[in-house]
């Protein structure tokens, strides 16, 4: 049977009993045609999942009993953070959705020189995160940070290993990863690429500059390929 996931707030759990919100209850009843005794997974968005059984459907509210609590359900032991230039239209939504499915812990939108879009609807983005996390079965919902300038982000970033995906990259991804490093920033440029000035500024954080191939990729394609590659490589390193 296909596993079904629902968001749960921690204040909706008491003594191993839970109640779904009105919106999640409606989704269970009307969209999924859920029934009593159905088994479901509850995701709190903070790294915990609960294997549960539905025991009550009272009008439009659904409740049940928790049978098992699982920490870091659907999560990697590594922290991957996406740093990406704002892009216009639904393509930014697409990046947020797919980055969530691919396991990032946070998304930092950056205004680069060649960015056309200057703002991001954080509330809308968080709803996309929650939907993608439920679809993919993640217990942690990535944080969407407010839009930042490149200078501000660089000034605050001194701890993680930085991977800069760029067409002219000369490093190999496998040489930039190891078991001792648990946090990585994946840096993706905007439409129109980084400027020469921005590439110079990024040298301050000493990134490993990695190519994704001989073809020029869109920002959203670079994000998906780059995240998929590092996930696969870290899994290989873990053995």
Proportion of beta-strand residues: 25-35%
What share of the residues lie within helices? 25-40%
Q: Which residue ranges are poorly predicted, with pLDDT under 50 across at least 5 consecutive positions?
A: none
Number of helices: 6
Q: How many whole angstroms does the radius of gyration measure?
A: 20 Å
Describe the protein:
The chain is of the alpha/beta class and 239 residues long. It folds into two domains: 5-71, Ribosomal Protein L25, Chain P; 79-238, Alpha/beta knot. Helices cover 30% and strands 28% of the residues. It contains six helices and 13 strands. It has helices at residues 22-31, 90-101, 122-136, 150-156, 196-202, 219-238; strands at residues 5-7, 13-14, 17-19, 39-43, 48-58, 61-71, 79-85, 106-111, 143-144, 148-149, 161-165, 183-188, 208-210. Strands 7, 8, 9, 10, 11, 12 and 13 form a seven-stranded parallel beta sheet that branches. Strands 1-4-5-6-3-2 form a six-stranded mixed beta sheet. A hairpin with a 4-residue loop joins strand 4 (39-43) and strand 5 (48-58). Helix 2 (90-101) packs parallel to helix 3 and helix 2 (90-101) packs parallel to helix 6. The longest helix has 20 residues, at 219-238. It is elongated, with a radius of gyration of 20 Å. The model has no long low-confidence stretch (mean pLDDT 92).
């Amino acid at each position: 049977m296909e596993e079904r996931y629902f968001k749960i707030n921690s204040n909706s759990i008491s003594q191993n009993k839970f109640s779904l919100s009105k919106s999640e209850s409606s989704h269970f009843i009307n969209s999924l045609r859920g029934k009593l005794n159905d088994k479901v997974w509850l995701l709190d968005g903070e790294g915990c999942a609960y294997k549960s059984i539905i025991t009550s459907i009272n009008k439009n509210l659904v409740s049940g009993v928790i049978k098992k609590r699982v920490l870091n359900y659907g999560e990697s032991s590594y922290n991957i953070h996406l740093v990406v230039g704002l892009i216009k239209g639904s393509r930014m939504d697409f990046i947020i959705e797919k980055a969530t499915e691919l396991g990032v812990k946070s998304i930092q939108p950056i205004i680069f020189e060649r960015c056309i879009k200057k703002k991001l609807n954080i509330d809308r983005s968080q709803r996309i995160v929650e939907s993608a996390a439920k679809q993919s079965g993640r217990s942690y919902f990535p944080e969407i940070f407010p839009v930042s300038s490149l200078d501000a982000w660089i000034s605050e970033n001194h701890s993680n290993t930085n991977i800069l995906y760029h067409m002219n990259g000369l490093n190999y991804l496998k040489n930039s990863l190891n078991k001792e490093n648990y946090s990585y920033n994946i840096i993706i440029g905007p439409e129109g690429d980084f400027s020469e000035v921005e590439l110079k500024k990024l040298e301050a954080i000493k990134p490993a500059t990695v190519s994704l191939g001989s073809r020029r990729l869109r920002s959203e394609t670079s994000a998906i390929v780059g995240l998929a590659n590092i996930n696969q490589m870290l899994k290989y390193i873990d053995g």
